[in-house]
Write a structure and sequence with these properties.
The chain is α/β, with parallel strands linked by helices and 323 residues long. The protein has two domains: 183 residues, HUPs (Rossmann fold), CATH 3.40.50; 103 residues, no CATH class. Helix content is 35%, strand content 18%. The chain is elongated, with a radius of gyration of 25 Å. Bound molecules: iron/sulfur cluster. The site of iron/sulfur cluster (SF4) has 9 residues, from helix 3.
Length: 323
Amino acid sequence: MEKKTKAIGLFSGGLDSIVSARLVMEQGIDVELVHFTTVFFNGAVDSKGMPLTVIDLTGEFFDVLKSPVYGYGTAINPCIDCKIFMLRKAGEYMRKKKASFVFTGEVLGQRPFSQRREAMKIIERDSGLNGYLLRPLSAKLFPPTIAEEKGLIDRNKLMSMSGRSRKPQMALAKRFGVENYPASAGGCVLAEKEFEKRLGDLMKYKPGFDAGDIELLKHGRHFRMSPEVKLVVGRNNGENYKIVSLKKGTDLMLHAQEPLGPVSMLRGKADEAVFDEAVSIVARYALGKDGAGQARIKCFGGDVEKYVTAMPCKESLAISRRI
Ligand code: SF4
């Protein structure tokens, strides 16, 4: 029996990924999808029944994030370097699985930064996939890949989509009977402005950060109290629980009891002055913006368990410390 051609699809979970995989499968090719996650982009994805492998690359991705060769996008998103990295990993996976090529759901000109023709060429070259990277939705707008030249896949059945409109992809989804798909892939916090500030602060004051530090950036209000110390104050019950779950050994938790207020975390070794400021900020959020009086705060963590009372800080202090 003739051996089937095998291809690896870099899968984001969005509509483009789904229909590009279906286009390749339609030609009788054995498709395996691979979805790379990191702590920055890790939503669940639905491969619509197609074989999918999920691989977490958080640790290796930190190096890409810290010094991207091609810089950042509108926030702290190193999109070109990120795509090069993901494709390099997909290439390794392709070789491991003895597949013939890698494909993606990229569409020429769909994104201003990383899907310009020039950028897409650079991404292909630097990922080491020259000739082995197929973009089924825009294939006819690029030179033929090795798989097309060898006749492993029929170029005539591939697409020539470009630009931001998603209508052609939606028409393809209809043709394939694919329903209930996300319009685009799940969010990446690196493209968010608020996250950019928080991550910038972390990279400056704790360059050896870990995944737990990053996860914490997604929750609560953050305050830079000193170069070594930061305070995180929950904004709602969900965040309170999340902040508690991210506590590490030396973190001190500050929980306003009277009145009942947010759960907060003090990370880093705080001297008395920093501690006093921190509890005054916690009191400010327990009592409200114009609140008066004092808050009673439970402090616990490690071998510490004590109660303190604190007056709310001035609004200007909270603002000046806010990241
Ligand atoms: S938005 Fe995030 S996941 Fe997407 S390419 Fe850019 S850095 Fe990578």
